[in-house]
Amino acid sequence: MTDGVTDMATAGPGTGGLRPLLDAVHETACEVRARRPDYFEQRPLRLPADLLERHGAGRDEVRRLVSEAYGLRLEPAADARDCTAVDRLAATRAARGPEPGAGGSGGGTDSGGVPTAAGLAAVVREQDEARRSLEQQAARIARTEPRRVGVMGGVLPYVAAGTARDGEPPVVLVNALGMGTALWHPLMAALAPAHRVLTWAPRGTRAGTRPLRLRDQADDLAAVLAAEGVRECHLVGWCSGPKTAVEFHRRRPDAVRSMVFLHGSFRHTGDPAGREPDTPYERGLEELCRAVAARPALAARMRALFTGRRAGLPDDLSAHRFAEEVLALPAPGLEEELLRPFADDVLPAYARQLLDYWDHDALAHAGRVRVPVLCVTAEFDRIASPERLAQAAGRFPDARHERLPGATHYSMYDRPREVARLLGDFFSTARPRSIVSGTAR
After folding, report:
1. Do the strands 373-378 and 233-238 form a parallel or antiparallel pair, or are they unpaired?
2. C-alpha distances in Å from residue 387, one per residue of 41, 214, 308, 375, 392
3. Exposed, middle or buried: residue 15 (CB in 10 Å: 0-12, 13-18, 19+)?
4. C-alpha 174: how far from its chain's center?
5. CA of 243: how far to CAs of 80, 160, 272, 361, 368, in Å?
6. How does DSSP classify residue 401?
7. Residue 261 CB partners (closer than 8 Å, separation 6+)
8. Residue 275 has pLDDT above 90, yes or no
């Protein structure tokens, strides 16, 4: 297995060029300011001095121009220990190279390689426009009339984006229980130029409907593929979605080209030794679900434990802790979507569904999965245990683990281009299976 973490102090030489640094500064500044608009007013962005040198920003004048272009203070750090989680995130991005779709500008430099204020301003406009364009595409997907397929007990609406391509399986985004599709729209927009992409809100939590079990969710997945005329697909399961993906693979292994478990949970309550590396959120959620399942009338009272407003960050946190807490915050605008499973008329059914999922040991099938598997964890995932998913990767014969630095449980919403590139690179290595032998060609 491999780990996708790049050590900020040892990112290899040859990554030079100002544009990767500019993209890293832009992406990091946007992500941080969305959560804490005043973050850079009092705090610099410190990057290792050797990294700045490799990217053409070793001189004071270059750093001054870049700082002015992005409205922050870019400083060299002689000691990597001085760098916060925000600094390390920017350094990792700079070492990685430019984002797809970042444009062809060389970084706003003159003929001698020195940046100009006008050139840098043009780069910032280009970056902002690329970001707005992706947001607009995601908004169009949100407005698209869903397709519908008949399923056992009703009709399942599903969202589709992108165009089917000959020989290229679609990407099926297997959603978390209780969630709508809004969290997926940015990633769908980023994937759609190269892939057909499908997703839906799992059924079984609406008032008056029976809670669906794991097998029912796998049936719905099969129904969507049948409606699309799909014989093979890439499965991307988020949160509780990986259990549905593995159950579908157990039934129809030839219909799966590859599987990605994005901040996924294989939580299993049948662990008598208590070895499950739960997050505090998971432990609290199980207590809530058991209480509500036993006494549904408690739903309105119990939901307050999970839907209270988050307290602001204390002013006395250290620089390192403050940076970590800022990155760990969910993106603005997600509050309503994240509270969806805890609505009074949804919580009782949601609780019963989760208890059913936790009772199912999906990893019992892991050793028989012969397709490539990518397990993606996030540094600041405080919902689904990153440790559990990293351990689960070792149970699949052909799996690797990637850790997203500075990311949360919602990376597909926060960092759609970054996640799309990771998925696209992984999909390109998953070869079609031979019809005769069942092995990769």
Report:
1. unpaired
2. 35, 23, 27, 11, 9
3. middle
4. 13
5. 39, 22, 20, 8, 14
6. E
7. 237, 241, 242, 245, 373, 374, 375, 376, 389, 392
8. no
Is there a contact between 206 and 170 (Cβ–Cβ < 8 Å)? no
Those residues whose C-beta lies under 8 Å from the C-beta of residue 199, and which sit 6 or more positions away, are 158, 159, 172, 173, 174, 175, 181, 184, 188
- Closest Cα partner for 197 from 207, 211, 212, 186? 186
Q: Phi and psi (nearest 5°) for 400?
A: -140, 160
* Contact assessment for residue 22 and residue 122, using Cβ atoms and an 8 Å cutoff: no
pTM (2 d.p.): 0.89
Q: 149's torsion region: left (phi>0), alpha (psi -120 to 50) or beta?
A: beta
Question: What would the pLDDT profile of 70-127 be if each residue is shown by its tens digit?
Answer: 999 999 998 889 999 999 999 999 998 665 554 444 554 544 467 899 999 999 999 9
Q: Is the pLDDT of residue 439 over 70?
A: no
Q: How far does CA 330 lie from the centroid of its chain?
A: 12
Cα gap 233→244, rounded to integer Å: 14
What is the tally of helices (H) and strands (E) in the chain? Answer: 18, 10
CB 337 within 8 A of CB 331: no
CA 80, CA 68: separation in Å to the nearest integer?
24
Q: Residue 204, SS3? A: coil
Q: Are 416 and 134 in contact (CB under 8 A)?
A: yes
More confident residue, 142 or 440: 142
Burial category of 299 from C-beta neighbours within 10 Å (exposed 0-12, middle 13-18, buried 19 and up): buried
Three-state secondary-structure class, residue 85: helix
